[in-house]
């Protein structure tokens, strides 16, 4: 797909886009790029309020040229005014808007984190971004949430036992583990998926009954858990675990063969330098 072209059928490219299916009825009708009015319509017709940390409604606005004043910069403007600068006809910014609509609590928590770190850096005249903002940016771009009711599956994922997880425990993964992509950069990559696509994961243990719920209900739960984690437990990129997302059953047409999981350039073994 040409990265500049609008494709109203993008939701059918990959199961990765499942969190946006609730928005699909509207998006599939659009024969040209959604504009800011379309994004506002989607935002205003979602079940969850889309607001920033202080409760101001999120509003998608045109991008401006680079700003020198802190209050006019990207993250502070969201925190102070609720305004998310969004480029027209741009998949990256389009997916960022959809993530705001789908995970509003978590996005607001990330924005608050960014703003507080930027404010402290400004006050102390620090030029370099710290480890917390590095982690927040990485998750914002490439984050994936993993939920599972099976401790064994979680242990296999955390231990990088990819073939045992995705192939030998395939049936259990399909019933007791689910991936929710969060990073808007990862969604953009999913338009043209390639071997090597890797998310930065946060893992939650959930009750088995969670998997009986429809996706919109699961999204609300994931959003709330993620908000708490980002606000209280994210400190550095080491809090995020690599997740080769195309290993999930059905997320690549090639992973129906067990040999797919033998590629150690993608399904990398546990690093020897890290103690389990």
TrEMBL record:
Pfam families in the record: DUF3025
Name of the protein in question: DUF3025 domain-containing protein
Top-level lineage group: Bacteria
InterPro entries: DUF3025 (IPR021390)
Organism: Nitrosomonas cryotolerans ATCC 49181
């Amino acid at each position: 797909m040409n990265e500049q072209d609008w494709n109203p059928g993008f939701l059918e490219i990959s199961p990765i886009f499942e969190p946006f299916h609730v928005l699909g009825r509207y998006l599939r009708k659009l024969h040209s790029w959604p504009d800011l009015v379309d994004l506002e319509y989607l935002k205003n017709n979602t079940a969850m309020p889309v607001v920033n940390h202080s409760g101001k409604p999120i509003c998608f606005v045109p991008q401006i040229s680079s700003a020198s004043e802190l209050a006019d910069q990207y993250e502070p403007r969201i925190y102070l005014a609720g305004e998310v600068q969004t480029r027209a006809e741009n998949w990256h910014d389009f997916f960022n808007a959809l993530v705001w609509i789908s995970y509003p609590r978590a996005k607001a928590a990330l924005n608050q984190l960014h703003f507080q770190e930027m404010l402290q850096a400004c006050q102390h005249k620090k030029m370099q971004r710290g480890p917390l903002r590095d982690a927040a940016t990485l998750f914002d771009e490439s984050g994936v949430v993993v939920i599972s009711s099976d401790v064994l599956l979680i242990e296999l994922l955390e231990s990088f036992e990819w073939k045992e997880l995705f192939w030998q425990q395939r049936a259990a993964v399909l019933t007791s583990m689910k991936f929710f992509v969060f990073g808007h950069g990862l969604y953009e990559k999913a338009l043209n998926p390639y071997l090597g696509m890797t998310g930065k994961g946060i893992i939650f243990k959930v009750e088995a009954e969670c998997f009986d719920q429809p996706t919109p209900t699961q999204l609300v739960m994931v959003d709330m858990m993620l908000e708490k984690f980002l606000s209280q437990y994210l400190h550095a990129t080491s809090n995020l675990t690599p997740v080769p997302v195309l290993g999930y059953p059905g997320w690549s047409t090639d992973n129906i063969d067990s040999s797919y999981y033998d590629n150690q350039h993608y399904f990398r073994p546990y690093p020897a330098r890290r103690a389990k």
